[in-house]
Amino acid sequence: MDNSGLNSPDLQKFLEVEKQKAMFQEMISKLTSQCWDKCITGTPGSKFSSSEATCLSNCAQRYLDVTQLIVKKFHSMQ
């Protein structure tokens, strides 16, 4: 069996893109879960209250800030 295709640059690039997509989806899932649990304390209505919307926005922004900081730290360590 010819394994030369397994190490092709195109395949490696494809795998890297898919890995990044999976990491992004996992991050969004964690962000949604954590911010929802923190900000939505009751049964949600047809729309968020202003305090819930503000909390969700702030929570998401802090989560993204911390994630960026961690990524930068790991890149600097390499």
Automatic annotation (TrEMBL):
Its main location: mitochondrion. Residues 13-75 form the Tim10-like domain. It is found in: Mitochondrion inner membrane. Keywords: Chaperone, Disulfide bond, Membrane, Mitochondrion, Mitochondrion inner membrane, Protein transport, Translocation, Transport. The keyword Protein transport applies. It is a peripheral membrane protein. InterPro entries: Tim10-like, Tim10-like_dom_sf. Signal peptide: none annotated. GO terms for cellular component: mitochondrial inner membrane. GO terms for biological process: protein transport. The keyword tRNA processing does not apply. The twin CX3C motif contains 4 conserved Cys residues that form 2 disulfide bonds in the mitochondrial intermembrane space. Heterohexamer. Belongs to the small Tim family. Mitochondrial intermembrane chaperone that participates in the import and insertion of some multi-pass transmembrane proteins into the mitochondrial inner membrane. Also required for the transfer of beta-barrel precursors from the TOM complex to the sorting and assembly machinery (SAM complex) of the outer membrane. Acts as a chaperone-like protein that protects the hydrophobic precursors from aggregation and guide them through the mitochondrial intermembrane space. This is Mitochondrial import inner membrane translocase subunit. It comes from Saponaria officinalis (Common soapwort).
